[in-house]
Amino acid sequence: MGEPTTGKIIVFSVLTAMVIGGGLGVVFLRNVFHALVAMVVCFLGVAGVYFSLQADFLAVMQVLIYVGAVAVVIAFAVMLTRRGTMADSNRFVASGLQLAIGAAVAAGVGVALLRLICETAWQASGKFPATDVTRFLGEALLTRLPIPFEIAAVLLLVALVGAVMIALEEVHKS
Amino acid sequence: MGVGLLLPEIIACMGGLVILTERLFSKGEPERKDAAWFGASVLIIAGVAALRLLGVNETAFHGSYRVDDLAVYFKLVAVVAGAVTLLFAPDLLSQRRVKSGDFAALVLFAATGMMLLPSALDFITLFISLELISISFYVLIGIQRGEVRPAEAGLKYLLLSGLASAVLLYGMSLIYGLTGSTYLTAIRQAFSVGEWPLLAGIGSLMILVGLGLKIYLVPFHMWAPDVYEGAPAPTVAFLAAGSSAAALAAVLRLFGESLTGLSGVWLPVLLILAVVTIALGNIVALPQTNIKRLLAYSSIAHAGYILLAIVAQSSAGTAAVMYYCFLYAITTVAAFGVISAFAETSGGEIRSFAGLARRSPFLAFVMLISLASLAGIPPLAGFMAKFAVFAAAVQAGYVVAAGIALLLSVISIYYYFMVIRAMYVDEPVETAPIPCGWGTQAALLIGLGGIILLGLIPWPLLRLAQEAANFARF
Amino acid sequence: MMDLSCYLGLSTILFVIGLFGALTKRNAIVVLMCIELMLNAVNINLVAFSRFLDPGQLLGYLFVIFTIAVAAAEVAVGIALVLVLNRYRETVNLDDFIWLKG
After folding, report:
1. C-beta neighbour count of A135 within 10 angstroms
2. Which of A15, A140, B285, C13 would bridge B297 by S-S if both were Cys, CB 3.0 to 4.6 A apart?
3. Under an 8 A CB cutoff, do B169 and C15 touch?
4. A163 vs chain C: nearest CA distance in angstroms?
C-alpha cells in the first residue's frame, strides 16, 4: 500500500473536516436550514471519501441520491412545515434526562467502538479492486444478488405509492 | 429449481401489483371490498405454492437464499396472518374511508417481505427484506387519513425503526469487516474456529438491538403501545402476527445458526433481556385500561417467552419458537378481529366491553377463547405453546428463568380475566347488537377453529415444526 | 493511501454524532437527518472494509447500493408522515406528540 503522501493526508484531512464538521452542524446549529446545509456538506464529504477509496460509482450515486434527492426532499419538508421565523428552530428536547441519556449512550458507544477498532488486528489484503469497478458491480448485481435487486425495486415502489397514500389530500372534498 | 423457489413471493408480489394497477382505473370507492377478497385469495394461492416447497431443502443464488422447511413454515405463518387480516379488514376500513385496495396491496407487499426474510442467507437479502416489511408497515400504520393518531404512530415507528436499522447495519458492517463475507454460511465457518476479537461480539449485539425492535425486546419495545393504540386494528393484527414472526425467523437464522460462535457475548445478554421482557410486559399490562395497549404489553410478554426458547439453543427450542409463532399469530389475529369489529368504534377502553356477551355472544366468545389461549389455559393452543417453550428452557438448564416466566404467566391470567369479566359479568351500557360483516365472521371462525383444534390436536403442527427444526442447520 | 483504521475512526465519529442527535433532537425532520448521518457512517465502514479486506468480491460496495436505496425510501415516507402531522398539529416537534408516553 505504501506510505501515505502529504497530498493524500491533506485530502483526507479536508474530507474528515467536511464529514465531521457537517455532522456536528446538523446536531448543533440552531436553524434547521443551516443544519440542512451542514448535512449537504457532510454528504459531499462522504462522496469524497468514496472517491478516495476508488468507489467512483458509489460517489456519484451518493451525490445524485443524497445531495440531489434526499436533501432536496428534506428542504421541501422544512419549507412546507415552518411557519414564521427560522431562528431557533433546531432545538434539543426539553427533558434534561433524555438529553443526559442520549449523551451517555452516544459517548459509551463511541468510546467502546473506537477502542475496540484500534485493538483489532485487521487482516488487510494487499490487492486492489478490479480496474472497472462499475462493470463489476453491475454484473454482480444481476448474477450474485438478483433477489435483493428485485426486492429493492418493490421497496421503492411501496415507498413512492405509500408516500402518496399517506400525504394525498382528499380531492373531492368540495 | 431456481426461480421456482421464489414462486410464493412472486405470486404475492404480482397480486399487489395487480391491485395497484386496478386502482389506477377505478375510482376506488371505500365501500368496495373486492380488492381485499382478491388479496386474501392471492395469499392463499401463495400459501399453496409454499406448501409445495415443503421438503425441498435447497440453497440457491450463490448461497444467498435457502428454502427449507423452517423457511416454508414461516412463509405459511405470514400467509395465514395476512389472509385472515384481509378477510376482516375491509369492514372497518370502509368506515374509515380507507380504500381496501390500498390496504390489500400493502399487505401483499409486506407479506412478500415476510416470506423472503426467513429464506435470506446473506446480510444484503436479509436487510432489504426486513426493510420491505418495515416500509410497508410505516404506510399501513399511517394510512388512515383524516386523523392525527395514526400518522403520529407511523412517524414514531418510522423514526425508531430507522434508528434500529442504522444500528443493525453498523453491526452487520463490523461482522463483514471481521469475516470478509456477508453470507451467513461463511460467517458461521469463520466464527466456529479460534479466538475472536471483542468487536465481533459488539457487532452481534448491535444486530440484536436492530432486530430487537421488531421482536419487542425490552428496552426497544417503547413503540409498541403507542403504535397499537394509534394504528387501525387490522394493521396491528398483521404487525403483531406477521412482522414479529418473520423477524424471529431472522433471529433464528442469525443467532441460532450463524453467530453461535459468538454466543459467549450475546447469549447472557439475550437471557437477561428475555426475563426482563417477560416481567415488564406482564407487570405493566396490569394497570392498562385500553384493550389495545393491554394487548401491546401482552405481545411484549409473549415475545419474552419466545426469546426464552431461542436462548435454549436447541432444536427443541427452535421447534418451540416456530410452534409458538403460528399459534400466537392466529390468536392475535382473532383477538384483533373482535377489536376491529367492535372496540375501534367505542374508543377501545376495556370498560366499553361491558356486557358484550349479551350484545354479541359470538364476538364475546371469540374474544374469550383468544384471551384464554393467550393466558395459556388448557386445552387451548396457547397452553401447548407455553408448555413447549418452558420444556425447552428447562431442558437447556435455564430452570430459574423458566420458573420466573411461569410465575409471571400466572399473573398474566389476571389482566386477561379482567376483560373477560367485563364482557360476561358487567352490565351493558348500551344494548344495541353489533353489526358484523360476513368477512369478519369468516375470519373469526377461522381463528376460533385454529385455536381450539390446534389445542386439542397439536401433534401435526408440532411434528412439522420439530422436523423443520432438525433440518434447519445449513 | 490512508490506512483502514482512519476510515473506521471517521465513520465511528459520524455514527456517534448521528446517534446523539437522533436520541436528543426535538424536530422530527432533524431526527430523520441524524438517522441519515448514521447510515452514511455505515456506508463509509462498508466501503472501507470492501476496499481493504475484500477487494475480490466487493460485497461492501454492493451492500452500500442497497442501503442508499433504502435510505431514500425511508426519507420519502418519513417526510410524507411529517407533512400530514404538520397539517393537523401545526408542529414538527416530537415533544408535542404522544411521544414516549408508553
Report:
1. 11
2. B285
3. no
4. 5
Residues B423-451: tens digit of each pLDDT: 999 888 777 888 888 899 999 999 999 99
Partners of B60 in the beta sheet? Answer: B65
Q: Over the stretch B380-409, which tens digit does the pLDDT of each residue have? A: 888 989 999 999 999 999 999 999 999 999
Q: Could you tell me the pLDDT band of residue B34, with boundaries at 50, 70 and 90?
A: confident
Residue A115 lies in a domain: no
Query: How far apart (Å, rounded) are the C-alpha atoms in residues B377 and B48?
Result: 32
Torsion, Cα of B6, B12, B15, B17 (10° steps): -80
Looking at beta carbons, which residues of chain A come within 8 Å of C39?
A: none
Shortest CA distance from C9: residue in chain A: A114
Query: The CATH number of the domain where A33 resides is what?
Result: 1.20.120.1200
Cell 428534506 locates to A74
Chain B positions with Cβ closer than 8 Å to A:
6, 13, 20, 61-62, 64-65, 102, 105-106, 109, 112-113, 116, 124-125, 128-129, 131-132, 135-136, 138-139, 142-143, 145-146, 151, 154, 177-178, 180, 197-199, 202
Q: Are B255 and B366 in contact (CB under 8 A)?
A: no
Which residue segment(s) compose the domain that A138 sits in?
A: 131-174
Question: Looking at the 3D structure of chain C, how many domains does it have?
Answer: 1
End-to-end CA distance of chain C: 50
In a domain, A106, yes or no: no
Residue C95 has a pLDDT of 65
Residue C65, domain CATH = 1.10.287.3510
Ranking B293-297, B348-352, B360-364 by mean pLDDT, the lowest is: B348-352
pLDDT at B209: 95
For chain B, domain boundaries: 2-471
Domain with C70, as residue range(s), is 4-92
- Domain assignment of residue A111, yes or no: no
Which among C35, C51, C57, C81 is the top mutation candidate for probing chain A, defined by the most A β-carbons within 10 Å of its own β-carbon? C51
The answer to whether position A162 is within a domain reads yes
What stretches of B343-472 adopt beta strand conformation (E)? none
**Residue B435: other Cβ atoms inside 10 A:** 10
Rounded CA separation A94/B361 (Å)? 49
Cβ atoms of residues B371 and B335 within 8 Å? yes
- B159 and C77 within 8 Å at the Cβ level: the answer is no
DSSP letter at B233 equals H
Which value does ipTM take for this structure? Answer: 0.94
Reduced to 3 DSSP states, what percent helix, strand and coil does chain C have, rounded to the nearest 5? 80, 5, 20
Q: Per residue in C31-71, pLDDT tens? A: 999 999 999 999 999 999 998 888 888 899 999 999 999 99
pLDDT tens-place values along chain A, 174 residues long: 456 688 888 999 999 999 999 999 999 998 999 999 999 999 999 999 999 988 899 999 999 999 999 999 999 998 888 766 677 777 888 888 889 999 999 999 999 999 998 888 887 776 776 678 888 889 989 888 999 999 999 999 999 999 998 888 655 443
Query: Do residues B335 and B295 touch, judged by C-beta distance below 8 A?
Result: yes
Helix (H), strand (E) at residue B66: strand B65-67
Structural domain count, chain A: 2
Residue A122 to residue B146, Cβ atoms within 8 A: no
